[in-house]
Amino acid sequence: MAISSEIEGRWDIVITSLQDICNANSSLSLGAIADDITSSKVAAMDDDEKERLKEEVGDHRANVGAARRLISTSQDNLRAIIDHLNAAKAEDADNDDDDASVASGEESVVTTRPGRASKNTSSKNTAKSKRKQGRSFYTSKFNPSEPIVVGSDVAFRLRNRHMEEWIQCEVMKVSPDGTKFEIRDPEPDENNNPGQTFKANYKEVLLIPPASEAKTLTNYPYGTRVLARYPETTTFYTAMVVGHKKDNVRLKFDGEEEVNKETEVDRLHVLPMPEK
After folding, report:
1. Most exposed of 34, 85, 120, 220 (fewest Cβ within 10 Å)?
2. Which residues partner with 245 through β-bridges?
């Protein structure tokens, strides 16, 4: 049985997701933190040490959340691979039955066709019913990189610009392997026509978390460099985190004309700088 590009693409996502989990746990081990979490040790800590421990525990909690999302994505892709292989196996078996019936001259060829079509259609529909899921190449404990599905909002890196510029777009299509996308700028052009459509790969997009995940996102430490959507625009620019206020992040955008100007942006639209 030939392995299709869809299976190879999904298997690549599974392997990459598991590698990301392994790498994250290697860089942030719970063992070292657990050694410090005893009543006597915590009581003996000063305020700075307690704050560092709190940040480490928070980082590990975010790491666990990211690992759960990666495991869920791996499970979805493994189920899709199994469905695809089962459908292909069923089709091969039915083709063998047809060949045997033709060789024997039996009229059962005619009677088996409706059954085969029904079974294959069901299997294929099951596979197609699985919503195609993609992911961004970049991973961070501060932001999910998956799943990217039709309807997801992403930041898209515009090409051939003198400066790096990212704009918010909506995902219209996801490739079978989850690494290529068709996306659309939601902003109409100067003639009020629908926004431009782009082709993008997973190294050119960052997932904008859905509103349902707002409460689960980890806060950025002071001084973190980020990509943030400038208020009343759909364009993302580089900025530095200077604080938090409820569900917003206080930022200093690069290149602001007003010296030391601070701007508040909702947490969903403050994305980590793209680093693998």
Report:
1. 34
2. 248
Decide if pLDDT at 128 tops 50: no
For the chain, the residue count is 276
Question: For the whole model, what pTM was predicted?
Answer: 0.55
Q: What would be the CATH architecture of the domain defined by 212-272?
A: Roll (2.30)
Neighbours of 195 (CB within 10 A): 16
What is the rounded distance in angstroms from the CA atom of residue 104 to the CA atom of residue 12? 44
User: Which CATH code, of 2.30.30, 3.30.160, 3.40.1350, 2.60.40, is assigned to 152-207?
Assistant: 2.30.30
| H or E segment and range at residue 241 | strand 235-245
- DSSP element (H, E) containing 265: strand 263-266
Query: What are 94-119's pLDDT values in tens digits?
Result: 666 555 554 555 444 333 334 434 33
Is the torsion defined by CA of 147, 148, 154, 159 positive or negative? positive
Confirm whether 152-207 and 212-272 share one CATH topology.
Answer: yes
- The answer to whether 68 touches 76, Cβ cutoff 8 Å, is no
Q: Phi, psi (5° rounding) for residue 219?
A: -70, 145
Which pLDDT tens digit goes with each residue over 213-251? 988 999 999 999 999 999 999 999 999 999 998 889 999
The residues near 263 (Cβ < 8 Å, ≥ 6 apart) are 230, 231, 239, 250, 251, 252, 253, 256
